[in-house]
Amino acid sequence: MDAFDLSTIFVLIFSLILTAILYQNHSSKNTKLPPGSFGWPVLGETIEFLFSKPEKFVNDRMNKYSPDIFKTRIMGEKTAVICGPSGHKFIFSNEEKLFTAFRTHSMQRIFRSYQSKHPSPSFAPPPSQSTRVIRQPGFLKPEALARYLGKMDSITKELLQSHWEGKNEIKTYPFAKILTLTLANRFFLGSTNNSERIAKLVNYFDDITSGLHAMILNVPGTAFHQANKAAIAVRRELIGVIKDKKEEIANGVKMQDILCHMIVVKDSNGKLMGENEIADKIMGLLVAGYSTVATTIAFLMKYVGERPDIYEKIFTEQKEIALAKKAGELLEWEDMQKMKYSWNVICETMRLTPPLQGTFREVLTDFTYAGYTIPKGWKVYWTTSSTNKNPAYFQDPEEFDPSRYEKGDGPTPYTYVPFGGGPRMCPGKEYARLAILTFLHNVIMQYKWELLVPNEKIVGDMMPTPEKGLPIRLHKY
After folding, report:
1. Can you tell me the distance from the alpha carbon of 338 to that of 333, in angstroms, rounded to the nearest whole number?
2. pTM of the model
3. What is the pLDDT of residues 231-269, one digit of tens each?
4. Please, what's the b/e burial string for 358-383 (b: 16 or more CB within 10 A of its CB; e: otherwise)?
5. 260 annotated as belonging to a binding site for a ligand
6. Using an 8 Å Cβ cutoff, are 412 and 387 in contact?
7. Which three-class secondary structure state does DSSP give residue 266?
8. Are the C-beta atoms of 332 and 324 separated by less than 8 Å?
C-alpha cells in the first residue's frame, strides 16, 4: 500500500471521527439535559456514589441542582436520577415503554455466564425474563406461599434451637444470613438443610453481594474478582443440583419448586434452558432472597432492641396469636394477617434502613421529564433516598415510629417504595414479608434482647451492613 493510500485512509478516518464529535456536540447543545455533573473522566461520580451515604449523595445533588432530576455518571454510565414521589410514579408507570431494566456491568458479568462475553445489546434477552419464569407459574403468589409457610416456620424454629439455645450472646446478622439462605435454598431448590453446605454458601454469597456494584477489575484482591470466583463456585454447585434434579424428574419423582420448573419450562420455540442459564438465574434469585431479607431481619432486631415500648406491643400481638394455637401447631396464613403492628415495625425498619437503595433502568427512547430531555441509551436510577427520610413526606424522619403507618391512609403514595412498584415490583415481596414475620414471631415468643454495640457503624455501599454483625445479649423466658 503506497503513501497516497495511507494518507487517504487516515484523512477519511479523521473526518469520520471529527464528524461524529461535531454531531454529538451539536446534538448535546440542542438537547436540554438535566442539571448536574458527570464528574471525573471514566470514573465519573462512582466512588462517591458507592462509598458515601446514599442519602447524602442524592440529597446533596437534589439541593444543588434540582429536587426533581439531576444527571451524573456512575458505574460507567450517563445516568439521570429521577427523584421524589412524582419521579417514582413516572418510572413505575413507564416500564417497558420509555425504559427497561438494566443490570450493572458487574452484575451482567456475574449472572450472565451462559451468554457470549460480548453479547450484542440488541439480541441480549431482556433482564425481565429472569423474573418472568417465576411469575408465570405463581410460585410467589399467596396461595403457593401459604403451602410453604408451615415449613418456613419449622425451619426457623430448628435454626433458633440449634444456634441460639443455651447461648447468652449471638451475632444477629450472621444468623439472619444463615436463616434466609436456608429458607431460600429450600423454597427455590427444594433442598433439605445441610449446615456445612449453607455455611459455605453464605461465604460465597457474601462475596457475590459485595461485587454486585463493584468496578470490573478482575484482579486478585478486588471485590469483583472475589465475586467472580464465588459465582463460579456457586454455579458449579448449582449445576450439580440441576443434574440430580433432572435425574429425579426422569425417574418420575414429583417435585414442586422453582428449580424444577426452570428445568422443564420451554420457550416459545420449544427450547429448554441450558444448565448454565438455569444456574445463573437461580443464583440471581438466591442472592436477591438472601441479602435483602437478612439485612431487614438484622436491623429489625436493632430497632426493636432499642425500644422496649415497641417490643411490648409486638409481644402482645404475637402472644395473642400463639395462645390461640394448639401445642405444636405451626403458623398459618390467617395468623400472618393478624400481625398488623409487627408488619408496621418491619415497614419502619425498611424506611430507616432500606435493604436495597435503588435500581437502574435503560432508556429505550428519548423522553422529557420536568422540562429536561433524557436521551436514548442513558440510564435512569430510582432511589428510596429521595423520599424515605424527607421531612416533606415523613414527620420527624429520623425517629423510629411504626404508628406513622396507622395514621390516615398511611404515607403519601410513592414516598415509601422498598419493593419498587408497577410491573417490576419485586416479585418476592410477599415471600419476604412471611419470612421476616415468621422469624419475629418465633424470636419474640422466646427472648428479650439488648444491643451490645448500641452505636454500631453501618458499612457497605448499596446494601447496608452492621460492621460487627449486630451482637446482642439474650434473655430467654
Report:
1. 9
2. 0.87
3. 999 999 999 999 999 998 888 887 778 888 888 888 778
4. bbbbbbeeebebbebebeeebbbbbb
5. no
6. no
7. strand
8. no
